[in-house]
């Protein structure tokens, strides 16, 4: 089993290459116009192709309540390994996208309490869940806000494979992973704001520090025979 470290919100070749060189196992590209990390699909396609050519990381395009046409363009023009749905998509909508397209589906769930974890269990069609903090009331986007939730909620033993995200950074990611040592469904961690020095501006030193800290902590997990970022 591998342990995934996902660096989300990459916007250019330099930071993508830095994340790949540091050993990222997943790289994420945001397609959401209100985000400081927004990429047009043509730019995302170039970065996905570059990541694929390097052969080491899986690529993810993130969208918020995308319509059918946008989903089709992401799958057919950008060709990521994964589509991350980060809006209010229902379980039925996720199932419909799954039935119509050959792409891995990540469903992001905003978590503030145990009821959100129970809600996550209804997304059978998702290949992977991503547990994130529920956005603050005044947030202008549903994710990428650098806000953490109570990670203990992710210790619910009923969860299928999931990525932990929300407010992670190089100095807390090891504690987050260690706190979920008994949770075999923890498939990896995801970060955006915690490796930036301004909204949308990745800091390559922080990216490297985050990956090193996460891989080091993953190596200590009982289920990890061969941890890979
Ligand atoms: O990054 C964005 O701007 C964004 C916009 C809309 C929906 C989701 C978005 N980002 C999601 C992520 O980057 C992560 O998957 C997750 O929310 C963790 O973000 P952070 O707390 O900033 O590390």
Automatic annotation (TrEMBL):
Keyword set, alphabetical order: Amino-acid biosynthesis, Aromatic amino acid biosynthesis, Isomerase, Tryptophan biosynthesis
Pfam families noted in UniProt: PRAI (PF00697)
Annotated EC: 5.3.1.24
Gene Ontology molecular function: phosphoribosylanthranilate isomerase activity
GO biological process: L-tryptophan biosynthetic process
Signal peptide: none
Isomerase among keywords: yes
Keyword Translocase appears in the UniProt entry: no
Family affiliation: Belongs to the TrpF family.
HAMAP family associated with the record: PRAI
This protein's name: N-(5'-phosphoribosyl)anthranilate isomerase
Originating organism: Camelimonas lactis
